[in-house]
Amino acid sequence: MTPRRLEKTTIVPLPLAETWAFFSRPENLNKLTPPEVNFDIKSPVAGVEMYEGMVIQYRISPFAGIGFDWLTEITQIVEHSHFIDDQRVGPFALWHHQHWFKDLGDGRTEMTDILHYQAPLGPLGTIADWLFVRRQVEGIFEARENAIKQLF
Q1: Global confidence as pTM
Q2: Order of strands across the sheet that contains 94-103
């Protein structure tokens, strides 16, 4: 299977510095992830701003109660510009998630997510992606956009 690419742009009604401050705290992922994913951060991240090399451990159950351990690493940070997280262990064969931030100059920030992912299991993963994985991933991004609208 060729890796899939998803891109989603959201306007956050906060200045860049405030937007960055929120998104650079891994503990805030819980506020942005839909409850049906059963997202649980296992690493002690409360009050910690992310840094390059930071490894974060999660437990997720997005598909009919099937649980997965997930380990991501923050591999790149350019403050107030972007950060990248890559899966090290987890349910995907590939997960490379770029988060880009752009000051719109009017008290708002444009946030663009670029995700490259690949379902596991070769041809079976391709079928799973076609049947439900892509919709699930897209749904998480849509739910996050809705959460941003409610939070801010």
Answers
A1: 0.89
A2: 4-12, 109-118, 94-103, 82-89, 66-78, 55-63, 40-41
Residues β-bridged to residue 96? 86, 116
| C-beta of residue 24 within 8 angstroms of C-beta of residue 145 | no
40 sits in which H/E element: strand 40-41
Rounded Cα distance, 59 and 71, in Å: 9
Q: Considering the domain 4-151 in this protein, what is its CATH number? A: 3.30.530.20
Domain layout of the chain by residue ranges? 4-151
Residue 15 has a CB neighbour count (10 Å cut-off) of 16
Q: Which residue's entry shows tokens 């809705």?
A: 146
Q: Which residues pair with 109 in a beta bridge?
A: 12, 103
CA 44 to chain centroid: 18
* Residues belonging to the chain: 152
pLDDT tens-digit map of 35-80: 888 888 999 988 888 999 999 999 988 666 678 899 999 999 999 9
Query: How far apart, in Å, are the Cα atoms of 54 and each of 31, 90, 98, 106, 142?
Result: 20, 16, 15, 32, 26
